[in-house]
Amino acid sequence: MAPDPRAWPEEGATLRPAAALLLIYPNAGEWHVPLTVRGSGLRHHTGQVSLPGGRLDHPDESVEQAALREAQEEIGVVPNTVEIIGRLTPVPIAVSGYLLQPVIGVAQERPAFSIAAPEVERLIELAVARLMEPDAVGAEQRVRQVTPQILQTVPYFDVAGVRVWGATAMVLAEFTALLGDVEP
Questions:
Q1: Pairwise CA distance, residues 50 & 36, whole Å
Q2: Cis ω on the peptide bond leading into residue 118 (within 30° of 0)?
Q3: Contact of 15 with 56, CB cutoff 8 Å
Q4: How far is CA 42 from the centre of its chain?
Q5: Does the structure show a pLDDT above 80 at 125?
Q6: What percent of the chain has pLDDT over 70?
C-alpha cells in the first residue's frame, strides 16, 4: 500500500518518534478499528484519515504510552480499558519527518468515543472485514507532496466514503495480512 515511487526521508535525516494506536473493539457483532479525519487547522496531514496518534512527548515515554495517551486525547479512549498486544512495522514518514510506530490494542467493548475538535474533524468506525473485501482497494495518480514533485501511484482503501492512503493504509495492510482468515 506504499505509494510508487515512495518518498523516503533524506539519507542521514533524524526522524522524530511517533506512535499510533490500532485499536480493535467489538461493535454490532464485528471487529472495528477507529480512524480519525484530521482537522483542517493542523500543521501536517490535514483532512487525511489516520489512526489516533502523534509524537512522543517525553524521552522516557514508550510508544505504547504515547499511543494510548494520543487515543485518549483525540477520541476519548480510556487507557486502562485497552490491552496492548503488540507492535507492527515502524513506518518512516518523509513529509513530516516522523518514524511512526503502530501499536495494536484490544478493548473488550466499544469505547465511549469523544472526539477532540479541532484536532479531529470526524471519527470513522471501520469494520475490519471491510479491509478484506475485494473492492476495498484502489489506486490513483497524484503529484508527490515532497521534492521532487513527480507523479506517483497511490494505493488506498476505500472506506466510509473516504480514501485511506499513505502510512495509515500501510499499517492497515500489514494488520490485515497478519489476520489472514482469523474470525472474531
A1: 5
A2: yes
A3: no
A4: 16
A5: yes
A6: 90
Amino acid at 105: G
Residue (of 29, 28, 3) closest to 173 by Cα position: 3
Radius of gyration of the chain (CA): 16
* Among 73, 106, 95, CA closest to 147: 95
Q: Say if CB 133 and CB 121 are below 8 A apart.
A: no
| pLDDT at residue 18, rounded to an integer | 96
Q: Give φ, ψ of 148 to 5 degrees.
A: -75, 140
Q: Which residues have CB under 8 Å from 165's CB, separation 6+? A: 1, 3, 48, 154, 155, 156, 157
The answer to whether 146 and 44 are in contact (CB under 8 A) is no
Task: Give, in order, the Cα–Cα distances in Å from 145 to each of 11, 12, 88, 142, 151.
Answer: 18, 20, 25, 9, 10
What does the pLDDT look like over 33-85, one tens digit per residue?
Answer: 999 997 765 555 456 899 999 999 898 999 999 999 999 999 999 999 999 99
Gap between the Cα atoms of 160 and 125, Å rounded? 9
- What burial class does residue 122 get, using C-beta atoms within 10 Å of its C-beta: 0-12 exposed, 13-18 middle, 19+ buried? middle
CA–CA separation, 114 vs 111, rounded Å?
A: 9
Query: What DSSP character marks residue 111?
Result: -
